[in-house]
Amino acid sequence: MSIDNLHQQVSIMGILNVTPDSFSDGGKFNEVEAALAQAEELLAAGAQVIDVGGESTRPGAEFVSQEEEIARVVPIIRAIKERFDCLVSIDTYKTGTARAALEAGADILNDVWAGHYDGEMLALAAEYQVPIILMHNQTEEVYEDIVQEVRDFLAERAQAALAAGISADKIWLDPGFGFAKNAQHNLDLLQGLEQITGLGYPVLFGISRKRVVDHLLGGNTLAADRDQATAALSAWAISKGCKMVRVHNVQANRDLVTVWDQLVNGSKNG
Fold it and tell me: Among residues 88, 102, 91, 10, which one has the least CA distance to residue 43?
């Protein structure tokens, strides 16, 4: 899949955490060879994008300096791009890390603070003319109408991206499941997904193995035991118009994504 038609069909983003403390797979892929092996597995299973992250965003995770984050992600991004013909996104909210990642070969920016952290990320995306994923996030779990507030936030960030010089076809949105949202907030947002996809920009759906999945399963499940439920939610998201699912277990999601994409989008194109 080329970067230019990324949003024309449903695709899978495989998660590659190169951190010691991510909630699901921290410490497994910190070294280049281990990361390459995992990237190869994700791609063989059907991922079109590898999302490389050097700082955990789980609740309570320690802050990682820009210098440390760059040291973690750049060698791995460079190695992936040298070995595989694939798209790579950099999961960071720090513009310095994002720039270093782009120079190492990254194709997409994935910003969990939607350009708010240091105020320079949108200008970087415009400079390189690369796709940027703008995720809803805030500091507290306080909402009056979560769907409307998330929708308004994302609409505002999309307008800010346009004003910064990013072309409309390079703007992606992410409702931010699990970020400053309790279980009920996440459930309400799932029910209101069509209001987010209705904004007219491609939407990334990222809920893989998160606590809301555990909540739906009744609680007390291990992260790795949430993959089938994640796949069910992927199908739900695609049926509501989402264009990419971000998952740990690509194999568990691949067939569902393929079938739902054919049912939802194939009939429109046929």
Answer: 88
Phi then psi for residue 120, to 5 deg, are: -120, -5
Go through the chain and tell me how many residues it has: 270
- Between CA 13 and CA 84 the distance in angstroms is 15
Angle between helices 146-163 and 183-191 (to 10 degrees): 70
C-alpha 9/C-alpha 104 separation (Å) is: 27
The answer to whether the beta carbons of residues 16 and 51 sit under 8 Å apart is yes
Instruction: Count the domains in the chain.
Output: 1
Full domain range(s) for residue 185: 3-269
- Comparing CA positions, the residue from 65, 78, 87, 164 lying closest to residue 121 is 164
Instruction: Report the percentage of the chain scoring pLDDT > 90.
Output: 80
CATH assignment at residue 149: 3.20.20.20
Alpha helix ranges (H) inside 64-145: 66-83, 95-104, 121-128
What the block records as the tokens of 137 is: 């996030």
Here the tokens at position 67 are: 């210098």
pLDDT tens digits along 167-207: 999 999 999 999 999 999 999 999 999 999 999 999 999 99
C-alpha–C-alpha distance, residues 51 and 131, integer Å: 13
| DSSP code at position 170 | G
Enter the DSSP assignment of 244.
Answer: E
Q: What is the pTM of this model?
A: 0.92
Cα separation, 118 vs 113, whole angstroms? 9
Residue with tokens 């998201």: 237
Catalytic residues: 210, 246
266 and 254 Cβ atoms separated by less than 8 Å: no
Per the prediction, the chain carries an average pLDDT of 91
